[in-house]
Here is the input.
Amino acid sequence: MIEFKSVSKLYPDGTHAVDDFSVVIPSRKTTVFVGSSGCGKTTLLRMINRMVDPTAGVIEIDGDDIAATEPVHLRRGIGYVMQNSGLLPHRTVLDNVATVLFLTKVPKPQAYERANELLDTVGLDRALGKRYPGELSGGQQQRVGVARGLAANPNILLMDEPFGAVDPIVRVDLQHETQRLQKELDKTIVFVTHDIDEAFLLGDQVLILEKGAKIAQQGTPEEILANPASDFVANFIGADRGKRRLTVDANVKPNGNDLVLIDAGGYAAGVISAPEGKLAVGTASPKSRSVSNKTSQAGDA
Amino acid sequence: MEWVWENFSTIWGYTLDHIGLSVPPIIVGFVLSIPLGYWTSKSRVARSVLLTIFSIFYTLPALVLFVLVPVALGLSILDPNNVIVALTIYAIAIMIRTANDAFASVSPDVRESARAVGYSAVQRFFRVELPLAGPVLLAGIRVVSVSTVSLATIGGFIGIPSLGSLFLTGFQIQFFPEIWSGIIAVLIIAGVFDLILVGLGRLLLPWNRRASRRRAARMAAQAVTA
Here is the structure.
């Protein structure tokens, strides 16, 4: 469990990147910080491994104040995945994955064995281990970045817009991969993104942030979608633009038991099961949220 | 040509003197430029002060420096160390700027991610920033090497034995084979030094060669499709 207690970050030039921020991040769940550029979400993430130290307030991991832990030591115990993979271009893929293990003086044979296993975990061919990062595609580099983040088997994985720089198809692939890994490995993931669809897809808990890391709304994706707390949230999640307000298309005949749904713009957004013309009431399996109705976030990038 | 064979031992002797004068400035200049260039790449004040000072040194004519150094250090005017110190100053003057650029060229993403995975500041310098600055540092030391080998000839004009001594006597007696053999010997030394540096670069920076080969392949592919 990670706990922010009235955390603030005031820069010398007077900007309040984070202002009196408090939240509890539960263990073994994915918490997503989502907001526009400059809202302080990355600053929050970097406070967890002391890349940035708060000017006020306390951050605790499992009840221990992290300010008491030496930063280099703390960072070696927390996985970190960043946007442009941040791989070391002069080390092979395998060396990159094993970086943290080398830093913590794990003997080389064990470190390489673990690194090879991690390539399997993130779905990369072991043969790629001998290449240099520059010889890999963007999507492969991000997978290596994830493998490196997992190397020390940390309980916490911090992900800073890890899929922001890859093309949309690869991004969807990596998002599903992240869900699969989370199911398998049960880490506490803190994920930062400006893409609300990504946030809703991956987050067990989503925090929508305004400037100064002010929490506009906090909850499960379902709670936020069903009940946006403010106009800002409604706007941010696209509810007011009708992208998420769906109605049954009256003009399309039901195909079997399915009804076609359209958004406010009249565009087909998906289908819904409606046995005998009635909307089915039921509970979907928890992680079956679909990525249809994917909206372009290009404007926010 | 006959003259060359007859005087081979003289030429060889001057060649060794010349190497002795140019190797220490290249090495010392390189080694000193690394911390200085690292510092200037981190601190704006250091950058403006140090780069300006060494630019001024670089504009001083070599002959002036060869005369100033013994005065400043209290050495005899005929001490070869004068030339070595002066050439080291020139080497730093060239190298500090390159070293500054080399460290500034290391991607901030890579630097940040090295920090994030738990490299300490010292480890970050030796294992990440220094190797990544390597290709630019290599380009810099190749320039320094050529420039130092050619500048060392001026030592001959202030009475310090080097291949420059061949120019001096050759000009005095208008004997061209002597001048030519001096020039060619300088070129050979510069060429051999450069080959050694390139070889060291391949040995120490294997990733760079593969990366640039890949870049070249990609550019060729683009040229074909374009």
Observations:
- The radius of gyration of chain B is 21 Å.
- The interface with chain A takes residues 107, 109-110, 112-120, 123, 128, 131-132, 134, 205, 207-208, 210-211, 214 of chain B (CB under 8 Å).
- DSSP finds ten helices and no strands in chain B.
